[in-house]
Amino acid sequence: MKRLEGNVALVTGGSRGIGAAVALRLAEEGADVAVTYEKDEARAAEVVGRIEAQGRRALALRADSGDPDALTAAVDEAAAAFGGLDVLVNNAGVFLLGPLEGMGPAEIDRTLAVNVRAPFVAARAAARHMREGGRIISIGSNVGERAVFPGLALYSMSKTALAGMTRGLARELGPRGITANLVVPGPTDTDTNPADGPNAETIAGFTALGRFADPAEIAATVAHLAGADGGYITGASVHVDGGFTA
């Protein structure tokens, strides 16, 4: 018996990287999965095809997470298409790196809109559709815990905010049997942060294990929290960082 059989999940930013790995793992566990994407329709379609190849229903929804109306509409559309919603994974994010002096209103607003406001908006929309035992899982960042390079202040601030949101959601939604948790990845091999990139050896050296994670390793923890075995975990920040913060 697959542990998410009969469940419906929505993964924001699910066309690539950690988001795609999460979407595919939830489908492997038996869930029907909707993903949002901003621009890359082809990659979103590829994820949908791989989910459907596993015998699950899948849906790709174009939505800029920085647009609260579009994001709310995507949550509502996913729930309508699949008859409800059991799991929300807040994965979409932007990573704007640079010196403090170079971060103007446009950069600040975009980062906060996608990395902070969007998870809250999506959670608010999803909670209207969630049944007993629902799951809200957000994807944080190791640099929200430990900023090892200059230029990370804005991004670190935005990801740190998710811990407070997660604790608040856990208290508010707990009486309905809905859990809320934060998964905090360490360096992970993705398009935006490849394990063979120019600074990869230095970055890997900050971890206790001396390597980058595969996105599937992050997805495995998300799947655990989404399933029945994670039912008594809520309000937690779960570090999957190879000892980055040890």
UniProtKB/TrEMBL annotation:
Residues 7-206 form the Ketoreductase domain. Pfam families: adh_short_C2. Keywords: Oxidoreductase. Transmembrane segments: none annotated. InterPro entries: KR_dom, NAD(P)-bd_dom_sf, Sc_DH/Rdtase_CS, SDR_fam. The keyword Membrane does not apply. Belongs to the short-chain dehydrogenases/reductases (SDR) family. This is SDR family oxidoreductase. It comes from Streptomyces chilikensis.
